[in-house]
Design brief:
Blueprint: H1 6-14, H2 33-51, H3 55-60, E1 62-63, H4 64-68, H5 74-77, H6 84-106, H7 108-129, E2 135-136, H8 140-156, H9 162-178, H10 182-186
Antiparallel strand pairs: 1-2
Length: 188
């Protein structure tokens, strides 16, 4: 009565599923490693570009003519670039604030896929609609995509989205002040 052999207990534990979020990510009590890794990559690209005096930006920026000539990586790599110190700091702030929540809801791989998909969406629209020979830099469309996804998840969970709207307003104001490419921003 009440006795189970160790093999039966082990077999029972093996079939128990770990708890998951509403979006399929494993529940965790911390983490944010994908968010931190993405922030590290964004900061590293900025520093390497600064040290190389813009040479790295010339390789990673979204240049319509270069993409047309077969440099398709630029559709993704421009999302790792930033224009100026304030630009990289704004991108890092948004990735930190929205990224942790998104990563805990979606999981690390889905979070990174979301970032890349949002950046690719903005890059594709820029490539299709911007004048030939135009160039773009910055993670703006990817960052706006993160804010949008975070707001959608918050609305679904009946949470307040005003902080996300505030961050979006800051990004738009910054972009208007430095001049922004509207085609990349369409790719929310």
């Amino acid at each position: 009565m009440g006795f189970q052999c160790p093999g039966c207990v082990s077999a029972g534990r093996a079939s128990v599923r770990s708890p998951r979020t509403a979006f399929g990510a494993p529940l965790s009590s911390g983490g944010g490693s994908a968010t931190k890794a993405l922030m590290g990559i964004l900061a590293l690209v900025y520093v390497l570009n600064f040290v190389s005096r813009g040479a790295l930006l010339n390789l990673l920026a979204l240049d319509n003519a270069a993409v047309y000539d077969g440099q398709f990586w630029r559709l993704l790599t421009y999302g790792l670039t930033s224009f100026g110190l304030f630009g990289v700091l704004m991108n890092l702030l948004v990735v930190w604030l929205a990224g942790r929540a998104l990563e805990s809801a979606l999981g690390g791989w889905r979070f990174i896929a979301l970032y890349l998909a949002a950046g690719l969406g903005g890059a594709s629209l820029f490539f299709l609609f911007a004048p030939f020979g135009s160039a773009a830099v910055g993670a703006s469309s990817a960052v706006v995509g993160l804010l949008s996804a975070n707001a959608i998840i918050k609305v679904k969970g009946k949470e307040d989205i005003r902080p996300d709207i505030g961050l979006l307003v800051l990004l738009v104001l910054y972009s208007v002040l430095i001049g922004f490419n509207s085609f990349g921003w369409i790719g929310l």
